[in-house]
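To: structure subgroup
Subject: Chain for Friday's discussion

All,

I'm putting the inputs and outputs inline so they're searchable in the archive.
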Amino acid sequence: MKDTTGLFALPARVLHWLMAAMILAMLFIGVGMVASVSERHAWLLRIHKPLGIAILLLAVVRLAVRLHYPPPPLPADLPMPQKLAAHASHWLLYALMIAMPLVGWAMLSAGGYPVMLGDSLRLPAIFPANPIAFAVLRHLHTWLAMLLFLTVLAHMAAALYHGLIRRDGVLASMVGRRRGA
């Protein structure tokens, strides 16, 4: 469907803001988990696993929404390198929203740890138990988390640039206000 309003479709906007909150929470929870090995922080792990799976599922839904409802066009006067950076960073975010939970799930599977989504729902292992694979996947999960954090920061900086400096309607299109309104 072609956008005629200059706005992202409502499902895209709802998923964007819901997932933004979830991803920011997940990044802070992840930092809290690795900052301490104390058992006092085990509750963070109990939040981290189901939240990661929820992000994975919503990322797939979000990708389907994006393919069904293409985003509004970027401003015509936006320099081509910025347009390319915008497109590349969005696809990188989608890739990371899918890869991060899958790598985390594979890491836990390789470590022989269950992925519990509550007290009674256990997800199947998606990788065979292997301590070397666990170590590699743990490092990969950490590096992907850092890349996600940096990409989110760049995304937020670009949104602020469009909203406060260029005032070109790009930020408004995701907030839900028409350009020029």
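Points worth raising on Friday:
Residues 10-175 form a domain with the Fumarate Reductase Cytochrome B subunit fold (CATH 1.20.950.20).
The chain has five helices and two strands.

D.
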